[in-house]
Amino acid sequence: MKRPHVAVMMRRACERGVLIPAFNIAYLGMMKPVAQALKETGVFGLAEVARPDVEKFGAVSYEAVAAAYAREADPECVGLHLDHTPVIDEDGRRVDWASLIRQALALRFESVMIDGSRLPLAENIAVTKEVVAMSHPQAAVEAELGAVLGHEAGPLPPYEELFRSRKGFTDPDEARRFVRETGVDWLSVAVGNIHGAITGAAKDQAKVAARLHIEHLGLLRQAAGVPLVLHGGSGVQRESVLAGIRNGIAKINIGTEIRHAWEKTLSSGGGEAAASDAVKVKVVELTTQVYGIAGSARALAQA
Q1: Paired residues of 94 in beta bridges
Q2: Regarding the domain delimited by 6-301, which CATH topology (the fold level of the hierarchy) does it fall under?
Q3: pLDDT digits (tens, 9 = 90+) for 119-147
Q4: Domain boundaries in the chain?
């Protein structure tokens, strides 16, 4: 039996308090271990690719990732998602976002993300609404509101300062308006989570042990009324993630942890087979020991 569309799986995950993990394929060889780990643990998750995976790492192209997905993944356990498609990227440049979204839709990606978080609210709404019109009903649409920091050039301010000030946190009133006016399926929010660095020496460093502001997250869940997404999921403290799931987080993006597993194995002299094993071990550890979602594919497929 064919599983439901990923949009349905996300709604069910949110309603049932089940997490859907999304793993960034920073290198093409990571698709196989991610897909194998999800199938062997019975977990439904997403394989995803973003512009930095192609431009700054080794994903090669969206076409190459789609081909690897078709070759390696069981669609009963793995969906294909286009991660961050920025209107303005981390280097402050305008991006031809429409052509990237169209490319993913032509490649049959099941969901896409438009990131207008660096835009004024009205412009973010307008762009997201356009992407929803382009993508529905074929693909679900994720957008971002607030500022999940970490990809910008230069060091971050001290984490505790960010958390205490709620700098960049998603505003609940804006979230309510955003979802109502765009018709977006999922919303990426900022509640203390940060991205791992993707440039310079910092890209090889372990992430800050972040946490989520659960009270603020609860306000967003009530205001938005759609599944919420946690970007920068690598390194967020386990108890904080579990509390987040109980307060509307249905999808978590994981990039840094599995990319470091791949890169560190290669840099220490291991070949791609060893790097693939390291990624698989990490995905199994996250899905079974950290998030406790073994068997979620079957549970979410059931009406």
Answers
A1: 88
A2: TIM Barrel (3.20.20)
A3: 999 999 999 999 999 999 999 999 999 87
A4: 6-301
